[in-house]
Amino acid sequence: MTIPDTLLRRHGLFLAVVVVYAAVLITLGPLATNDGPIHLSFADMLGHIGDADWPLQSQMYMSAGTLQPNMAIYAILRGLILVVAPDRAEAILQALCLVGPAVAAWYALRKINPDNAWLALFALPLLANQLFFLGLYNFLFSLTGFFLAIGWYLDLRQHPKLWRGLLLGVVLVLTLLSHAAGFIMAVLALIALEIVRLLGDWHAGVRGRALWTVSGCVVLALCLPLPLMAWFALRQHGYPTEYGPKLHDRVFSMARGKLFRLQSRDNLLLPHGLMALMLLTLLATVYKIWRERHHLLRGDATLFTGVGLTLLFFYGFCLVVPDVSGGGWTHFLRAQLFPMLWALPCAALLINKSWMRWSLATLAVIMLVVQFYQTWTAQGQVRQQLTALSAIDGQIGAHCTVLPVIESSTQFDQKGIPNPVGYEPLFQATNRLELDRDRVVLFNFLARLSVYPIQFRPGHDTQELLYHWEPQQTAVNVQRLDVGRFEQKTGIPVDYVLVWGQPRENDPVSPQDTQRVLNNASLVYQSVDQQVRLYRRNQDMPTMCTSQSSHMVTSDKFQSAAIKDRLRQN
């Protein structure tokens, strides 16, 4: 049998699903996420921040000027923006974040058991979780490096060479530049696997160079990124550290698959199915480790011993990791994804029946289709609300500031069910207006963090001045709008106010002083359903804003813009 025949027989299903999945994401995307518009805006700013043609953005923002642990996706986005439209660039990046780790997992699984590399299919529904829809592209992209490092290490065990150790170190450096979480978990997995191998080989009587060559290559690989990691850690010294969710809350969150609840609370079939498979894998892993508990000390430990113990170690890590640390948060949410993904190497060493392979492969494809259908249904609701941005874009000129106000914290579908759950895409969707004509949107909590390449200039933190947020505040609710304080401290006027939704009684997100801000403003745009409204403020401060629109956009004009937008998307 030829190599292409073997490749298609073992991996044809996975390769076909990945190609179709990536093509659909790129063609129909981008999907609406929380932080996605900010990442896109940052990547665009990197090309012109400080230029005379962008005076307003240059007055508000500055480049960090140093290497950051979240630089990888901005380098990719910046390159893509130069050749394709920004929306298409984000769609390609989203495909890389969802498909890239799955392909890397397939590569690692081929090193473990080529007959079960198709299990990487399950990585696709696992990756499209709340973290993705929160817009944590940096973290998801680091998972590609995580699996590449594991796969390269497994190859290194079979062929220990100095150059292989150096290349492993390069992979770890690139993973660190994507996100520290993927790098840290890769290092922990490599150390756990290598310790088990050392103990097994030692008790098997292996000594000298045969015992220590692989370990030397691993140590060399770890030495390359550690200085960079230490530098990043020193720069983040002084930020608070908090444990976050209590122990029992963490256990229940992981058991119930909260990470995979993307839309309404009725869509629990997929989370429950994934958690059922996870539980079966965990129980089978624990049972096999128990049966082989004496193998490690007898010198006949198998690869499964190291892989299985690493799974248990990842679970333990989820229970102890601080949720707030190093200037960031949601660390527990990120950590709990790793045992889910690490179940794939365990399953690759457990499954040995043909009927199990076919059944699980079919189940993986069904799960992916169900998840995509549910996600696209929810995205349809969001896209209807975001369509108005195309009409608003034509109403706002150059060098203008826009203050977005969320009047209702939850969007509802036609049945009255909250949709989506777990993320709020309207919070930063308005930042897409920053991609053109030197505009600044006055809601950006990423620019106040030191781990991103674009940051507020000193004294221009909109979250502090406008909303009275505390430093390192993790809650994103808005209850105050102190426009006067912002204008007085920065000398920059608030030109436009963009209002999403209608005020709801006792809504924790709806600012109480919205009406006071709008008392001296003129309505210049209103969507057909009246859920999106744009106001031009009437104030005497000197402004760079070139748009002097004061007319109301009619429903007919809005419908025409919406139709054109849908045709362009189709």
UniProtKB/TrEMBL annotation:
Keywords: Membrane, Transmembrane, Transmembrane helix
Keyword Transmembrane: yes
Keyword set includes Transmembrane helix: yes
Sequence intervals crossing the membrane: 12-32, 91-109, 121-154, 166-199, 211-234, 269-290, 302-322, 328-351, 358-376
Designated name of the protein: Dolichyl-phosphate-mannose-protein mannosyltransferase
Source organism: Silvimonas amylolytica
